[in-house]
Amino acid sequence: MAILNELEDGGLAERRRDPADRRRHMVEITEAGAAALGWVDAAVGEAEREPFGGLTEAEQTLLRGLLDRVVVNPADHEYGEWKVRRNKSGGTKSGGTKSGGTKRGGIR
């Protein structure tokens, strides 16, 4: 909600009650929001030109597809026989935990 509040405060989005269900809100991008989105898209395109410039269009498409499959938050996923475990402070424990719950070298 904080992000939506910021977008609304900046005039980039509008929130209205759904007339069919007053418990829901409908969010719509404003003209200023669409203009800002166009500017961001152009800036991202320019920033990508240099590092991806040596790749063909097909290679860039393949790379983007592969990167879309990369896990953003590794703490929530298993990797082979190892599972990363969050500690109480929200960080991850070095080495993670081994699936199956058996102890080995002090790592579960």
Features:
3 helices; two-stranded antiparallel ribbon; 39% helix
Question: In words, what does this structure look like?
Answer:
This protein is of the alpha+beta class and 108 residues long. It has three helices and five strands. The chain has helices at residues 2-9, 31-52, 57-68; strands at 13-18, 21-29, 78-79, 82-83, 97-98. It has a three-stranded antiparallel sheet, with no helix packed on it. The chain has a two-stranded antiparallel ribbon with strand order 1-2. The longest helix has 22 residues, at 31-52. The chain is extended and about 50 Å long. The two termini are 38 Å apart. 0% of the residues are buried.
Structural class by helix and strand composition: alpha+beta
Low-confidence stretches: 92-108
Strand tally, please? 5
Radius of gyration based on Cα positions: 22 Å
The SSE order reads HEEHHEEE
Tell me briefly what this model is:
With about 110 residues, this protein is α+β, with helices and mostly antiparallel strands. The protein has helices at about 1-10, 30-50, 55-70; strands at about 15-20, 20-30, 80, 80-85, 95-100.
